[in-house]
Specification:
6 strands, disordered N terminus, alpha/beta, disordered C terminus
């Protein structure tokens, strides 16, 4: 990947250089890491895809096929190398009512339309809005993801009929994943844990939940699926709301995950390319009868953090291995104990959580508003199990708190000039003026006590919206009713264009 360099200044590159696919293919160490990372992700994808299919109310094979198609497609089309895209719970929750109420044809049509909307959003530049998401929301997003990843393992730990052997197996898996990296990083620790626990369970003939217990694995390749729905306004009215929700939720999760991987790897990725890549991947998924999806934070963290992958090879192989595992090695995959995958996901959740954000030293140093925004994002996301809702509420909270904080930075200074000809009062307004800070502006003037001539100096302030111009207009009107003249100096040209009534009151300083 190219580094971002400012040619105007002699400074170090802003971003770390990532290995390219060609470099990985030429370097056995990197290639081995990418291959093994793809295998680990594929193993973790199988139970997740089956579970999300059940959430969506469709055959588990749809989730598995969708994960295969999307992972392979996004490896070529996506903007963020090493990020995993597959069937997800967020998308499954959004479009589940379609399958339940209208059937599979409408369900697939919704997926296709959702992908098309994502491409349209990408063309419109929606991905550029990511710059407006504050860091406090991003930290809340990450922490909420870690909590959701951890709590999603509860059914395998505390569900009905869970044998006691599951708990020592999970503990053993955790120990293996923390010990192995101390000796070697050539083989991903999660893969070692999965293999060891599987061998132990099979050798001891222990009866514990396995991958095969989660659902039936497919035995044939996916085929093209053309939804048989009438192409009319009525059909659009049925699928459009769900497709729009799917497109928004999928893009938001994918772009947030891409930004998170950017931060982890200290690299940059084109978000617009990622947006339309997600759209094309969803269309391909729907065309082969898949349920659609988006970026998967848990599997991405396994790939990037736990396994150390950095290129598109790992993403591509995750899809390829997934298909091989369920079609060719389905019998072997079926005997993998769920305890091994639970241990992997617990380690991922621990590694994902931003522990620095909850340290007492950090909480006391950060503004309370920033901490509040983070908590709102976490609580909203965990409460609704919807990352999009959590992020939107977090951004809204950040906007409100920022507006409140900036609103108090405006000051108005009054001074009276006693001259022989005619006394004049001058007001100097200092600060950024917008709807939040200009509401109290009209209360800062002594209308009845001021002399006949009033000068308002705006040269040390900046007007951002029509609300402030309206406030100034109200001030002028109050003085005029008292028979006093007002001159406004230093008003910027943009503000002058907002309201024609102010033109006659502008002085030479504007």
């Amino acid at each position: 990947m190219l580094t971002a360099v400012n040619p105007a200044r002699d400074r170090a590159p802003r971003y770390r250089i990532e290995p390219t696919v060609l470099q990985a293919l030429r370097t056995p160490r990197i290639l081995t890491r990418e291959v093994l990372a793809g295998l680990v992700v594929a193993l973790a994808l199988i139970p997740e895809a089956i579970a999300f299919s059940i959430i969506a109310g469709v055959d588990p094979r749809l989730g598995l096929f969708s994960s295969f198609v999307m992972a392979v497609a996004i490896a070529f089309l996506g903007g963020r190398p090493a990020m995993i895209t597959a069937a997800t719970g967020a998308v499954a929750l959004v479009i589940a009512p379609v399958a339940r109420e209208h059937g599979m044809d409408y369900f697939i049509a919704t997926v296709l339309l959702g992908g098309l909307l994502q491409i349209i959003f990408a063309v419109l530049g929606v991905a550029k809005l990511m710059r407006f998401i504050p860091r406090s929301v991003m930290v809340g997003f990450v922490n909420a993801l870690a909590i959701l990843i951890f709590t999603s393992q509860f059914p395998q730990l505390f569900g009905d009929g869970i044998p006691w052997l599951v708990y020592p197996l999970v503990a053993a898996g955790l120990i293996v994943m923390y010990v192995v990296p101390r000796f070697t990083k050539a083989v991903p620790a999660p893969l070692v844990a999965i293999v060891l626990l599987t061998v132990v369970v099979v050798a001891a003939a222990w009866k514990v939940p396995t991958v095969g217990d989660q659902g039936e694995l497919p035995d044939s390749l996916p085929t093209l699926f053309i939804p048989q729905v009438p192409v009319n306004v009525e059909t659009l009215q049925i699928i459009a709301p769900y497709a729009l929700a799917m497109a928004v939720v999928g893009l938001l999760e994918s772009l947030m995950t891409a930004k998170l991987v950017d931060d982890i790897t200290d690299t940059h990725s084109p978000k617009t390319r990622e947006a339309w890549g997600q759209g094309v991947a969803n269309i391909l998924s729907g065309a082969f009868g898949g349920m659609g999806g988006c970026a998967m934070i848990g599997q991405t963290m396994i790939n990037v953090k736990a396994s150390g992958a950095r290129t598109r090879i790992s993403t591509f192989l995750a899809g390829v291995f997934l298909l091989i595992l369920v079609l060719v090695l389905g019998d072997i995959v079926a005997i993998i104990p769920m305890a091994a995958l639970v241990a992997v996901m617990i380690v991922v959740s621990i590694a994902t959580f931003d522990w620095h954000s909850i340290r007492p030293s950090t909480l006391t140093r950060m503004p309370k508003s920033e901490t509040a925004v983070m908590l709102i994002t976490v609580v909203a996301t965990v409460w609704t199990h919807n990352l999009a809702i959590g992020v939107v509420l977090g951004v809204i909270a950040a906007m409100v708190m920022f507006a409140r904080r900036v609103a108090h930075f405006v000051t108005v200074t009054r001074s009276v000039e006693e001259t022989a000809a005619e006394p004049t009062v001058s007001y100097t307004v200092d600060g950024e003026l917008f709807f939040a800070s200009s509401n109290d502006l009209t209360t800062q003037f002594a209308y009845t006590d001021d002399p006949e001539r009033v000068v308002i100096d705006m040269s040390r302030s900046h007007i951002w919206d029509a609300s402030t111009v309206a406030a100034l207009d109200a001030i002028v009107t109050k003085y005029e009713r008292l028979g006093k003249t007002v001159r406004i100096d230093g008003l910027n040209a943009t503000a002058s264009a907002f309201h024609g009534r102010l033109t006659g009151n502008l002085g030479d300083g504007h």
